[in-house]
Write a structure and sequence with these properties.
Layout (H helix, E strand, L loop, with lengths): L1 H33 L5 H36 L6 H50 L2 H16 L12 H10 L1 H7 L6 E2 L2 E2 L10
Antiparallel strand pairs: 1-2
Helix pairs in contact: 1-3, 1-4, 2-3, 3-4, 5-6
């Protein structure tokens, strides 16, 4: 009787272990299937979507800054001056830098999302290993995947040209005037007679 009881208990334990292993295998397959859409192409698309949403904001700010610069240069008769060309070139260079920054931010945001997806998948698989419940694991994975697949809202890039305006509107005004004294009513030896120093901003 004891031997029979031991055999029965051993069989029950063996059957339970087999069921648990089957549950983990089934759940793992379901979880991996739920996350199968997060491919390199998916993340590349997210990066491009970020750029596509931020770029119009950047261009709008650039146009506003350029219009303001053009107005002020024209108001002082410096539209076709070396000083005007210098400021225009600086603005274009700054805009190119901001475009690169947007690309870097898009890539960083995508990397962050990729890490979140991986962490979520690993967490669900870890819970499956403890619960052996493929149904719960599958539902958790589907919910998480659907949440991560939802398009992100358009990024708010803020006022990217505030720094440029501060730098070239105030901090470097005297430096620009020194480089282009003729256009600021100066000579190399100081203000010319009968003229007044003009400024860009």
């Amino acid at each position: 009787m004891c031997l029979g009881g031991n055999n029965s208990a051993a069989n029950d334990a063996s059957n339970l272990a087999a069921q648990q292993q089957a549950g983990v295998a089934q759940g793992t397959q379901a979880v991996n299937q739920a996350f199968s859409g997060f491919t390199p192409q998916f993340y590349q698309g997210r990066t491009q979507a970020y750029i596509n949403a931020a770029e119009p904001q950047l261009q709008n700010q650039y146009q506003n800054t350029l219009q303001n610069l053009t107005y002020r240069l024209g108001n002082q008769g410096l539209t076709n001056s070396s000083a005007g060309n210098y400021l225009g070139n600086q603005l274009n260079q700054y805009t190119n830098q901001q475009q690169q920054n947007i690309g870097n931010q898009a890539y960083a945001a995508t990397q962050g999302l990729e890490q979140q997806v991986a962490n979520s998948q690993n967490q669900i698989l870890g819970q499956l290993s403890a619960s052996y419940n493929p149904t719960i694991a599958s539902q958790q994975a589907l919910n998480a995947a659907a949440n991560f697949a939802t398009p992100s809202p358009a990024p708010a890039i803020g006022n990217l040209f505030q720094d440029w305006t501060n730098i070239y509107g105030t901090q470097q005004q005297s430096s620009i005037a020194a480089q282009y004294p003729y256009y600021y009513g100066q000579s190399a030896y100081g203000p010319s007679a009968g003229s007044s120093q003009s400024v860009i901003y």
